[in-house]
Amino acid sequence: MATIFIPAMWRKDFGGLQEVEASGATVGEAVESLSAAYPFLRERLTSSVSIAVDGEVTPLGLLERIEPASEIHFIPAIKGG
Amino acid sequence: MAGKVHVQTTINGQPAEFLCEPRQSLLEVLRDVLGLTGTKEGCNDGNCGACTVMLDGRIVNSCLVFGVEVEGKSITTIEGIAKDGELHPLQQSFLKNAALQCGICTPGFIMAAKSLLDQEPHPTEERIRFYLANNLCRCTGYDKIVRAIQEVC
Amino acid sequence: MSTVTGYKVIGTRPVRHDGADKVTGRALYGADYAAAGLVHGSILRSPHAHAKIVKIDTSKAAKVPGVLAIVTAADLPESGDRMVDVGEGPQPLSHIRGNILALDKVLYKGHAVAAVAAASVHVAEEAAQLIEVEYEPLEAVLSAPAAMKPGAPILHGDTNVALHVQHVKGDVEAGFAEADVIVQREFTTSTVHQGYIEPQNGTAFWSSDGRVSVWTSTQGSFVVRDVMAAVLDVPVSQIKVTPMEIGGGFGGKIPVYLEPVAALLSKKCGRPVKLVMSRKDVFEATGPTPGSFMRVKIGAKKDGTITAGLAYLANEAGAFPGGMVSAGAMCVFAAYDIENGKIDGYDVMVNKPSTAAYRAPGAPNAAFAVESLIDELAEKLGMDPIELRLKNAAKEGTRRVDGPKFRRIGLVEVLEAMKAHPHYNTPLGGPNRGRGVAVGFWFNIGLESSCSISVNSDGKMALIEGSTDIGGSRTSIAMQAAEVLGIPVADINPSVVDTDSIGFTNVTGGSRTTFATGWAAYEAALDVVRQLKERAAKIWSVDLAEVTFDAGVLKSSAGTMTIAEIAPKLNGTGGPVVGRATVNPKGAGGSFAGDIVDVEVDPETGKTTILRFTAVQDVGKAIHPSYVEGQLQGGSVQGIGWALNEEYFMREDGTMMNSSFLDYRMPTILDLPMIDTVLVEVPNPGHPYGVRGVGEANIVPPLGAIANAVSHAIGVRMTSLPMNPPAVWKAISTK
Question: How far B37 CA lies from chain C's nearest CA (Å)?
Fold first, then answer.
């Protein structure tokens, strides 16, 4: 099962959990698999949130493929200057 | 408001004439009236040196000189530094030593550096830095600019 | 990825392709643009830091002979509640429009209110001053702490806090309980400006067929196009942006200010309209970087192991949301492997110009605080400051406080290089002298780039790409293609082209250009090779599988052909060969930087002289070492100015008192010694040539390094920037 790390500001909405396990072939499927328990998650993933799989920000967002042991992080999208 | 003044001068060794309003700076005349856009505007108040040209052999901030003031005088701009298609050794050294990044300050620096080397062919590092203190660069940290000038000394 | 060594082109120092134009004044920057019928605009700006706009009367201005058009926000289409995403995440369209021309309120002194176009810039300026604006002044708020207090004047909605980010790892309370030594301080930094020498500019022409053409100096032509499409409510494809050469940006030329106004003026008068900012307007009405208030606490055991880190960061976002605290919060403890961390970051709106990115935005502020405290910790623990950092250094696999684990990074290598450097091993003698070290981190981003390479009949190539070239990047990009093709880089002619001529390309910024656009050039070159092999197979009548390509030479059982030999045959054997690629790559590496600086302080004046400066950075693989060194030197000197002299000196009413290069005191050539650089190469496994973006990380450590040096020199811990002579003198005299 892949691990979705919950950003600190969202943990209260996840009953205080810091991590949640989820399964799927892609990040999107993993998020979808949590939609019953946490229906609000998907809509929080706007373009101001970057999706990082195993420490690497993915340009594919929810379409990025994941492995069983993958770590998924939602971090603020930054561009730089 | 006064009408335009007719000015006759010499630019880069060639006779030149133009019409300008009394309130227009030499910088504005060079760029907007004569199309010599190699001289740049960075601040328009004499504090960055991007507009450096030579006026009767002395470097000046062209934003602090009026167009009407150059009647009968001789001006050299960056466009006049390379001769017959050959880059001046300073220009070549700036390229070889990567002494420019965005390049906007480069014309001003080359004018000022040439003025220094015309008067003092072998300045110390301290003297180079002192002479060029009116030319601001924000990209390079000046290191490679100093080295490029030193290589031509 | 590639582990090729023994490069032929990469790592060399060719003269840049645009060099001759730039040293002779032939290169055309945005303000140099000329066209038939060009007229000039001037913008009227708010004298108040915070006020309601009651009425705008343009009638007197309209009567001035020579005035061709006048616009205000009333000429913009309605925003309503629409949200748009122009690459920064969703934001209210009213915010983007509102910064370009004030809607119902002015939010900073200098905020654009109206604009005039006339045949002469002087007539436009005089007419603009005749526009009568009735304001109802409101109380202004100028610092983050003040703006967060209950009862503070509010800029938008019902709070000035635009964003609160938080990261939590482990248990900070437990971590501090374990610590033998704890250091904690408050730090402040002032608003500073990127200081690019070329002011913002833009020319726009709105033709009668509805197409809008733009010529501008920008870090992102496609961003300009997207923003204009949103602001003007025009389809993206009707706008063509031609990037002119750009005179510096550092992040400050990513936002869009002038082009939409020029377009509105052009729409009204039917002429191309050019707008160029004065230096005063650049200071007062573009995007400086946030001033900040920070409170940081770090705990460590006797042996130097850091057990906990707590950070509170409040950045001034200026008049609209976006104070870069997100990035600051991710970088603040990034250099250290910390079990327990808690970070709270706030972007706070204040009545100052809306902030923009400045090279690693948010990170220098945060690193100033942390690196100062690490220095104090080292003193208290009796440890060498580099050893303390090595003991806790983040490595591949270290989990950051904000969550993800680092992949391959080079902090340890940077610290080892600092430790071994002759600078660090030369004792610094003498009174009033001090040495400081610091490290810092910045991300690299990937994002979209496109590239196309055409083979000419003489075997040389034209390469087109869309990354505006601020520092020699077109050459570094061409070098990556030349390496693939086995030809000299002088045989590739790179051009930066407009938004109709190349595929979408994201900003020149975020330390992405050599990484991502270089990758696009690499892929486009591979595409050229693929096509040449197919053509050779056809010409030789052999199987494609037996054709090889190496170092610019095609080979099969039928013989060999160099690129120069096959090139003239291409048209007649099937047509031209054009390679193309678009990328949005993963694998951006992240870069660590470190500085060693020696200073001497004059106790009578408080003036700090930089005696010696060494900048170290993990650059992955330096494609063109001279331009990589230049990035380290430039960012370091910006950091020197930020640490020692630069600030927006604000009057209580929100007026910037020093909006000129005379009094906004950036380092001159006379203020500095040579800046020595060390390029540490820990190749980025995610890039074909190991490239890490280098442009930004070098501005992260100087603030802390210089603060540490000055603090050692005078025996007083400095916690506020800039450490200008009055501030240092005061610290000495109240010691």
Answer: 6
Q: Are residues B123 and B69 in the same domain?
A: no
Chain B hits for C199, CB-CB cut-off 8 Å, are: 41-42
Look at residues B17, B49, B80 and tell me which one is the last residue of a structural domain.
B80
Give me the residue from A54, A55, A78 closest to C326, CB to CB.
A78
Touching check for C35 and chain B: CB below 8 Å? no
Q: Can you list the domains of chain C with their CATH numbers?
A: 19-27+446-583 (3.30.365.10), 33-138+198-247+253-285 (3.90.1170.50), 292-444+589-733 (3.30.365.10)
Which of C32, C638, C670 is the closest to B37 by Cβ? C32
What order do you get walking across the sheet with C201-206 strand by strand?
C67-72, C112-118, C39-45, C273-276, C201-206, C212-216, C239-243
Contact C404 A76 (CB under 8 A): no
Whether residue C2 has pLDDT greater than 60: no
In which domain, by residue range, is B147 found?
Answer: 89-152
Nearest CA to C274 out of C347, C213, C361 is that of: C213
Range of the domain at A54: 2-76
Q: Do chains A and C touch (3 or more CB pairs under 8 A)?
A: yes
Last residue of a domain, one of B29, B63, B80: B80
Whole-number pLDDT of residue C4: 52
Task: Give contacts of C279 with chain B, Cβ < 8 Å.
Answer: 42-45, 48
Q: What is the DSSP letter of A39?
A: T
Question: Residue length, chain A?
Answer: 81
Query: Is the pLDDT reported for residue C5 higher than 80?
Result: no
pLDDT at residue C3, as a whole number: 46
CA distance B79 to chain C (A): 6
Q: Which chains have 3 or more CB–CB distances shorter than 8 Å to chain A?
A: C
pLDDT tens track for B95-147 = 999 999 999 999 999 999 999 999 999 999 999 999 999 999 999 999 999 99
Q: Is A16 on the interface with C (CB under 8 A)?
A: no
Q: Please identify among residues 236-265 of chain C the ones whose CB lies closer than 8 Å to any CB of chain B.
A: 245-250
Domain at B132, CATH number: 1.10.150.120
Residue given tokens 């030593």 in the structure block = B97
Total number of domains constituting chain A = 1
Q: Please tell me whether residues B22 and B67 are part of one structural domain.
A: yes
Does the beta-carbon distance from C24 to B81 stay under 8 Å?
A: yes
Short-list C10, C11, C3, CA closest to C482: C10
Chain B segment 32-51 residues within 8 A of C by beta carbon are 35-45, 47-48, 50
Separation CA A64–CA A45 (nearest Å)? 14
Does residue C90 carry a pLDDT above 50?
yes
Please identify among residues 521-580 of chain C the ones whose CB lies closer than 8 Å to any CB of chain B.
none
Give the count of domains, chain B: 2
Q: For residue A35, what is the domain's CATH number?
A: 3.10.20.30
For C524-570, the pLDDT digits (tens) are: 999 999 999 999 999 999 999 999 999 999 999 999 999 999 999 99
Indicate whether A81 belongs to any domain.
Answer: no
Evaluate whether residue A63 is within a structural domain: yes
Q: In this complex, do C638 and B91 lie within 8 Å of one another by their Cβ atoms?
A: no
Query: Does residue A10 belong to the interface with chain C, where contact is any CB pair within 8 Å?
Result: no
Is residue C94 classed exposed, middle or buried when 0-12, 13-18 and 19+ CB atoms within 10 A define those classes? Answer: buried
Judge B/A contact: 3 or more CB pairs < 8 A: no
ipTM of the complex: 0.98
Tell me if C513 sits within 8 A of C474, measured CB to CB.
no
As a whole number of Å, the end-to-end CA separation of chain C is: 56
Dihedrals φ, ψ of C721, to 5°? Answer: -110, 150
Count CA atoms closer than 13 A to C211's CA, side-chain side.
6
Taking an 8 Å cut-off on Cβ atoms, the answer to whether C405 and A71 are in contact is yes
pLDDT of residue C1: 41
pLDDT tens sequence across C581-634: 999 999 888 899 999 999 999 999 999 999 999 999 999 999 999 999 999 999
